[in-house]
Hints:
2 domains; 23 strands; four-stranded mixed beta sheet
Amino acid sequence: MDDLRPITPIRRPLVDKRARVPASKSIANRELVLSAIADGRSRLRLGPLDPGDDVRAMIDAVTALDYRVERDDDEVVVHGPAASRRAGAAIDAGDAGTVARFGAALAALGSGYVTVTGSPRLRERPIAPLLDALRRLGGTVTGDRLPVTIVGPIRGGDIEIAGNESSQFASALLLVAPRLEGGLRVRIAGTLVSAPFVDLTIASLRRRGVKVEREGNLITVPEGRIRARDLRIPGDVTAATYPAAAAAVLGGEVRIEGVDARVRAGGQGDARFFELLQGMGCGVSHRGGGVTVQRIGALHGIRANVKDCSDVFPSLAVVATQAGEATELTGIGHTRKQESDRVTVVANGINALGGRAQAFADAIRVEPAPLHDGIVDACGDHRVAMAFSILGLQVPGVAIKGAGAVAKTFPQFYEMIAELSR
C-alpha cells in the first residue's frame, strides 16, 4: 500500500477523553468457527464499529463452506452444523492468518475439496505445520504454502504441532476437535508463542460445554456436542492499546469503553500491555466495563519478554521513544513472519524519525533521542501504521505510508484519533 497519510499532531495532554474500539477479532473469529459447527443457532453481536477485514473474511469463509450465515447491521447469526460441503469451495483469507489457519481446519472436516488462498504476503507466512498435521489426521492437502487444496474428512487421535511460529496452528486444531471421531489430543512441541491465545481458544470451547483438559502442553478435547451461544463480542484489547498509547505519549488520561483489559486466564492475551504500561509510568484502572490509562509524570524504559503478547510490541516501542531510559523488548522473532518483518519495520520507522532503535533477531532496543518529522513506511502492516500514527500525535510532521492497512482490524482508527484531538 502506498497511500500516504499525514498525521495531525495534538501535542497536549488528553483531558476527559473517551475512545471505543471494534469487537475483538480474536474472539469473533473463534466464535464464528464454533458457531458453524455448534448444535443450533448462534447469535454474535459485533457492536456498532466496523470489525475490519479479518472478521469479514472469516464470515465469508464460513459462508463459502456452505454454513448458513445471516448478517444484519451489527450482528451475525450462524446456523450449524448442516453444511453440504460442496466440492470446489474457495476461501480467500485476504491478509488474515486466523482465517487461513482456522479456515483450513474447518474445511478439513468435510469431504469436498476446498481451496484456501490469500494475499501475496499471507502466502509467504507460515502454515506448513498445520497442513502437515491435517495430513497426519487423514486429510489430503496439496502444497505447504497458500494456495492449497484440502480434502477431508480428518479423523481424531493424537497429534503434535509446533508452537514456535504461531499459536494459531494449535488453536485451529482445537476448534474443530469436538467434531472429530474420538476427539483429539494435541501436544504442543517446543516453545509456544502467544500462549494466552491458546488459553482463549480453550476458554471459548469450555463456554460452549466442551470438557477440555490440559496438562502442560498436552490438551485433550473429547468428541461431543458444541452448544450454540448468544454472545456480545467484547472490545478488542489489542486495538485498545492505541488510544492507551496516546495517553502515554501525550500525557493526560483516556478511557477505553467496552474493553476488559485485565490479565486473567482465558482472557485476551494482549491485556498484558496494560501491565507493561504501568511499569513505564502510567496509571491503569479497570472499572465499569472499560479501562482507563493516565500519565502524569515521566515515562520509564523497561526490559520485557513479550513473546506472549507480541502484537503489542509496536505500540510499546513507540511509547518507549518518549521514555527517559532505554527499552528492550524480546521474544519477538516470530513477528518477522507476520504482515511485515515487524521487528525490522518498527526499528526502521523509529530511525526514520531520528530515533535510535536497533533490531535483533528476536528483540528490539529503543534508546531515548529527539524525534523529528518524516515518513514511516508501514509496509502494509496495520499494527505498524496504527502505532506510528499515535506517535505522530506528539511529533509534528509524521506521515504514514500505507495508512490504509488499518482497515484490516480497525477501519475507523483515524476517526478515533480525530476524536482524541477534539
